[in-house]
Design a protein that fits this description.
Length: 270
């Protein structure tokens, strides 16, 4: 059986490819479990400092959940569907949202349902001009279940999100850009180079500082500004004694490029 998720690591960037092109990279249970296992391994791998997530084939990033598999869980009852489908999907999007290394979605084709929810959850996303997006769960008589009712309104605003959630209409990559769902829209043949360029620009900097920024933003986003500022202060306090901050300050004063000794697992920012 073909690998459900392909992994290639080069220049400290791991590229994860959802690999069910004949099923439009639909997220079956085994694929989600494999992706979660790879993220666990990458988190503790000092040789990987950023992740790019994309889809195999020319048609899809991901068409969302595997409806045939999901429907079998529904037939077995709500408790089974909640455990097998909803909890698993929410675990994946929460993991991507809170991952301590930058994750960039390279959306190479349609991103419907769970594929759109992955795009909402990751910190950064670039879309091909051939990409398309949709929140089609209402067509099945259900709400989104991988976080789409919560993250899209936070990104796009309540009314703009509800229009997409309640109609199920397909929307363009340009509209996704205007909503804040993606950072860039690029020519299809520039998608992976653009994702690698973004990752490389992040990798110039301290990995510990990047982790602290990701953590502060993720934790603080849904709190009050006062609570968020406490999170920010806490992250700085944890960076203050590190060699990375000392090196950054010394390099700035000496007008040279910094040479950070920090790594993602060593001296981790908790």
């Amino acid at each position: 059986m073909a690998e459900l998720v392909l992994i290639e690591t080069r220049d400290a960037i791991a590229t994860l490819t959802l690999n069910r092109p004949d099923r439009l990279n639909a997220l079956n249970y085994a694929l989600i479990d494999r992706l979660l296992a790879l993220l666990d391994a990458i988190e503790t791998d000092d040789g990987v400092r950023a992740v790019i997530l994309t889809g195999a084939g020319e048609r899809a990033f991901s068409a969302g959940g595997d409806i045939h598999e999901f429907s079998q869980s529904v037939a077995r009852g709500a408790d089974v569907a909640m455990r097998d489908f909803v909890a698993r999907g929410q675990r994946l999007t929460a993991r991507l949202e809170a991952f301590p290394k930058p994750v960039i979605a390279a959306v190479n084709g349609l991103a419907f349902g769970g594929g759109c929810e992955i795009t909402e959850a990751v910190p950064l996303a670039i879309a091909s001009e051939r990409a398309s997006f949709a929140k089609p769960e209402i067509n099945l008589g259900m709400p989104p279940t991988f976080g789409g009712t919560q993250r899209l309104p936070r990104l796009a605003g309540r009314k703009r999100a509800l229009e997409l959630l309640l109609t199920g209409d397909v929307f363009s990559p340009e509209h996704a850009l205007a909503l804040g769902l993606v950072n860039q829209v690029v020519a299809h043949d520039r998608l992976m180079p653009a994702a690698r360029d973004l990752a490389s620009r992040i990798l110039r900097h301290s990995p510990l500082a990047a982790a602290s920024i990701l953590r502060a933003v993720t934790r603080g986003l849904n709190q009050s500004i006062a609570e968020g500022l406490l999170v920010e202060s806490e992250q700085f306090a944890r960076m203050a004694p590190t060699a990375d901050l000392r090196e950054g300050l010394d390099a700035w004063i000496a007008r040279r490029k910094p040479d950070y000794p920090g790594s993602w697992s060593r001296k981790a920012v908790a």
